[in-house]
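Look over this entry.
=====
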Amino acid sequence: MHPIPGMVAIRELVRPDQLMLSTTTMSEVGTICLCGASPDADHGYRIMRDGVEIAKVYNGQRTYSDQTLGPNETHTYTIQTIWPDNASYTQISSGVSVTGTTFDLNLTASTDKVSVINLKWNPLDNIKGKGDVSLQKYKLDRYDEVKDELTTLPGDITSTDNYPDESVSLIPGFLYKYTLRPYPENAFYPDTAWGKILPDGRIKGKVLSPKG
């Protein structure tokens, strides 16, 4: 059967099937990966983030990576099937939606210990940085707001998710700002947290009384 000249062929559109965030959603800093299966190869996709169109994909492309994001961002993505499979599409289906959140170091510093500030974070061992770059090391800075003094804690940290700051220079009750810097710096995002040690309950010093 041949289409009548001047008429546009009508095709039944099916919503994108099996739309999901990739199982490696958090595998790269600042990236959310979408994947879905189209009813057939003649369809394309229209992709929206929080209700705003950000891309269309054609020519058999069935995945999309949103690489414009920072850490700990949450967005809802909606994908619609379009036909024909080009920028001049004439038909569009209703959409299916999914929500995802980007990776966050989530650095924390303890405030309830007497002689140590325990620093913890989400490890980057299996997380790729921008441009698919792998983690090389971490560096930790401690900033003393009272002294306006920045100290880089000794040694590079690799393949771990914690660090105990047991420096003898820590003053009980003082808040210290810690910055965790994954390297290479241009491939990852730093994170900050505030921590302190508690007084140990002992009073040291001399008591002087007037003579007489």
